[in-house]
């Protein structure tokens, strides 16, 4: 695989197919030539404001064409972009992000004003793109080991942690099979996810490096789902779409949370369906598998190219086939680590004793096991293991039983206290009594929830995952049911 910065690959696409549509949003379009030119203009402004290779630029925007221009311009200036959704970003979070990344420049939009702290420079993308002045096309020396983006993940203490992901990390997934998802010139890729979620980088950069057309959604995902060839989503988002109303879809990839088998089967009957796994720290996903409806089981597949997976016990020894252990990820997927957090780096990253040569591996906290045919079966996360009445319960195993009920599309199971579980299912037509009977028939008595609550739809976070914190508030009577 060629090791080159991603923006150089995109510029080469612009030179090869300048008239091809690169991005579309609500009827507005940019060709590859126009996208490249506008990104050059904005990159020149960033450099003029003192942005240098290896630095970070905060991108606080809403979904649209300027968002894509801002990403590409930041990369062309040699910096890593730090994406945040302007509609939901809180001032305290922005201050934390700017302090952690030491970003001096914030890219904004005129129709989504952002209060930027003193000492930082705000640049309105819309205003720069409206200019007609001459500019010097930026020429920046960069290596694939430079940062591509910095994503902030939820910390256990409530403080988000910034993860540095390099060009080489991202290219290793996007420019190899199956992570390229078959995207080629003429392929229409949906952009439906929050920009602060790493799956959005798969949508945006994965489309542009292969010369596809990025179709950015408005408020309703369904408005564009019927027009795209490739969808990347969380299972929670995908469950809101009807495959029968998406006749153009050829490829679907899901990640971010466990996928229910019925959902995978439903989509795998009409398209190439990929189930993936991997946190931000190992670059979007580090395992993938195309699923077939007649498969014995739904797995997360095998490591993506140039990556390794180790299933280790508590003493960091490899587990035998069939034994459950924690997934540690090695290879080219392993990101550059957390910004300004050496303690967390020491806890989650470690020298890779299997690859050696100074390589690192990352503790994903996913519970997995090798199947006899060499695939990985996902069995939840270490932080989803709870003690109920002194017994260890994997919450995802309870949810999996519920999601196999006829008519149930999504489920979530939560711990209320040391003796009580509670579950939620969608849609509201699911029979709670039948749900409880199904769990009692398949799992030990201590896995049976005190109640199963049907909802029209499970609430989702801004990143498209089940909002378990809100469900817990509902279960405790402190949150309204949507």
UniProtKB/TrEMBL annotation:
GO molecular function: phosphopantetheine binding
GO BP term (any one): amino acid activation for nonribosomal peptide biosynthetic process
Pfam families xrefs: AMP-binding
Domain AMP-dependent synthetase/ligase: 11-339
Signal peptide: none
A cellular component annotation (GO) from this entry: cytoplasm
Domain of life of the native organism: Bacteria
Protein name: Amino acid adenylation domain-containing protein
């Amino acid at each position: 695989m060629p090791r080159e910065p991603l923006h150089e690959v995109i510029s080469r696409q612009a030179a090869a197919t300048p008239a091809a549509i690169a991005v579309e949003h609500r009827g507005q379009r940019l060709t590859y030539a126009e996208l490249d030119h506008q990104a050059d203009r904005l990159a020149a402004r960033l450099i003029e404001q003192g942005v240098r290779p290896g630095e970070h630029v905060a991108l606080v925007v809403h979904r649209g064409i300027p968002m894509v221009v801002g990403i590409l311009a930041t990369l062309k200036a040699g910096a890593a972009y730090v994406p945040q959704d302007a509609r939901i970003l809180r001032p305290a979070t922005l201050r934390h992000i700017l302090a952690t990344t030491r970003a001096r420049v914030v890219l904004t939009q005129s129709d989504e004003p952002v209060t930027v702290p003193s000492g930082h420079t705000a640049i309105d993308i819309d205003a720069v793109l409206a200019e007609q002045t001459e500019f010097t096309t930026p020429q920046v020396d960069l290596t694939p080991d430079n940062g591509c983006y910095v994503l902030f993940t939820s910390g256990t203490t409530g403080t988000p942690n910034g993860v540095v992901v390099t060009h080489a990390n991202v290219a290793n997934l996007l420019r190899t099979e199956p992570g390229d998802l078959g995207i080629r010139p003429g392929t229409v890729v949906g952009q439906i996810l929050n920009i602060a979620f790493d799956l959005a980088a798969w949508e945006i950069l994965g489309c542009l490096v292969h010369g596809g057309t990025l179709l950015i959604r408005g408020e309703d995902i369904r408005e564009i789902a019927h027009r795209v060839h490739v969808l990347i989503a969380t299972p929670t988002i995908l469950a809101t779409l009807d495959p029968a109303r998406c006749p153009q879809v050829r490829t679907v990839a899901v990640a971010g949370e466990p996928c229910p088998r019925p959902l995978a089967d439903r989509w795998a009957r009409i398209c190439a369906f990929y189930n993936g796994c991997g946190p931000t720290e190992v670059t979007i996903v580090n395992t993938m598998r195309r699923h077939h409806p007649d498969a014995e089981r739904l797995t997360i597949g095998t490591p993506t190219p140039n990556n390794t997976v180790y299933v280790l016990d508590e003493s960091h020894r490899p587990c035998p086939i069939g034994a459950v252990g924690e997934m540690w990820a090695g290879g080219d997927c392993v990101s550059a680590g957390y910004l300004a957090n050496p303690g967390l780096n020491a806890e989650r990253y470690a020298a890779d004793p299997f690859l050696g040569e100074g390589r690192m591996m990352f503790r994903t906290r996913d519970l997995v096991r090798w199947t006899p045919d060499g695939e990985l079966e996902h069995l939840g996360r270490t932080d989803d293991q709870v003690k109920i009445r002194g017994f260890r319960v994997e919450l995802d195993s309870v949810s999996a039983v519920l999601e196999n009920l006829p008519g149930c599309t999504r489920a979530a199971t939560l711990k209320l206290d040391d003796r009580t579980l509670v579950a939620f299912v969608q849609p509201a037509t699911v029979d709670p009594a039948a749900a409880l009977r199904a769990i009692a028939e398949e799992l030990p008595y201590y896995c049976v929830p005190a109640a199963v609550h049907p909802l029209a739809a499970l609430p989702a976070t801004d990143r498209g995952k089940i909002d378990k914190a809100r469900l817990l508030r509902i279960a405790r009577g402190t949150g309204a049911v949507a």
